[in-house]
Specification:
The chain has 374 residues and is of the alpha/beta class. It is built from twelve helices and ten strands. The two termini are 16 Å apart. Keywords: Methyltransferase, Transferase. It is an enzyme of class 2 (transferase).
């Protein structure tokens, strides 16, 4: 075990690492081409998977080369960071909508999900996806990313919804996630990340007003979100690390939400029983480090997303070190880590950044982390 791994080992848990990353990686042109060929019926599903395998092996080796300890499959088998996983549940299906999700200056492809039966986790294809990653990661830690249960709870509303009682929905959703977590663990996973955009609702008054229009008070919904996560992970094995990435939107280098963590700080930092939090801090939209004063647990790792994944220009290393030092005024330096603020390709389209710049960003994270945590 390396010194970096050992420094992040608490109660038999490994990760987050001093230099870490959120997960998704730009899809290469060969993979994009293969997906189009598969959609047109020009190649088989097996042929597509073989191409995915080859590209995943390539980026696994590249992640090792730049010095990362946590290795992901780049989400190369997915079109979306969330829909692909959620559609793998029993009782959930995807459908085409009239319009996509509106970001700051761009719109996604039209796609949503709906619940048309009892939610359950039985034969989910991503278990096999993880097993492949686990095999090729070797001595490195295979990290897998899935959407938070809140992303299904807050699904696209549809008149054909199966559930009429919110409590029944939550009960089945939590049980399905408990099964999912155990299934990933049984497949060898020891580092699992929940990705969640729902918390950004509470970072602005516009978001709070939207929450009220749905019939909730912000404080009520914050607690419901926290409970969903806590109950979903309540039975996780002692040596399984579970983290959460809080996102404000990441599509084609654009974003959806703005605002600091202040309004939801007490819930996020003291009310959610994850082992680590990946926090966006790459620009002024994320606010300052003052909300970190609510961190009361000495076993909670805070991963500072100070390096942007949206644009290729490298941040000044000393500026990043100074910001880490500033954050350490609120949280012990030994509880801090460094990463990009989000993935490089939350959807298959990817951010407006080159592959060369992407790897330079990740290598930048590793080099800065080595300097800070000697």
């Amino acid at each position: 075990m390396t010194q970096t791994q050992q420094s992040n080992k608490v109660n038999n848990k490994i990760g987050p690492f001093r230099a870490d990353h959120v997960g998704s990686i730009l899809r290469p042109e060969s993979l994009k081409k293969a997906r189009k060929q598969r959609a047109a019926g020009e190649i088989t599903a097996e042929q597509l998977r073989n191409i995915e395998d080859e590209e995943i092996i390539r980026i696994v080796e590249k992640q090792k080369e730049v010095g990362l300890q946590a290795i992901t499959d780049g989400e190369f088998r997915r079109t979306w960071w969330h829909h692909d996983f959620l559609e793998g549940f029993d009782g959930v299906e995807g459908f085409e909508t009239d319009q996509g999700i509106a970001f700051h200056d761009v719109e996604t492809k039209p796609r949503a999900i709906k619940v048309n039966g009892k939610i359950d986790f039985t034969n989910h294809p991503m278990i096999e996806d993880y097993k492949f990653l686990h095999q090729v990661a070797g001595s490195h830690t295979a990290k897998f990313t899935i959407p938070s249960p809140n992303m299904l709870f807050f699904r696209e509303k549809n008149e054909e919804d199966y559930y009429t009682d919110e409590k029944d929905l939550v009960q089945d959703l939590v049980k399905a996630y408990q099964k999912a977590i155990q299934a990933f663990y049984n497949a060898g996973c020891r580092y699992l990340q929940l990705d969640d955009t729902s918390w950004s609702l509470f970072f602005s008054e516009n978001g709070n007003n939207l929450v009220r229009s749905w019939g909730y008070e912000p404080e009520e919904l914050r607690q419901l979100f926290a409970n969903n996560i806590n109950e979903a992970i309540a039975h996780r094995p002692d040596d399984l690390t579970i983290t959460m990435h809080i996102c404000r939107g990441n599509f084609r280098s654009s974003w959806v939400a703005s605002g600091g963590y202040d309004p939801a700080s007490e819930t996020i930092f003291n009310g959610i029983n994850v082992d680590g939090l990946f926090l966006e801090y790459d620009d002024e939209r994320s606010g300052g480090f003052e909300p970190l004063r609510y961190v009361k647990r000495n076993d909670l790792q805070i991963v500072l997303g100070l390096i942007t994944s949206k644009f290729g220009e490298l941040e000044d290393a000393q500026t990043i070190k100074d910001r880490i030092k500033e954050a350490s005024n609120y949280v012990n330096l030994n509880q801090l880590c460094l990463s990009p603020q989000c993935g490089f390709a939350s959807t298959e389209e990817g951010n407006i950044i080159t592959e060369e710049d992407q790897w330079a960003k990740l290598e930048h994270v590793v080099k800065i982390a080595k300097d800070v945590w000697k």
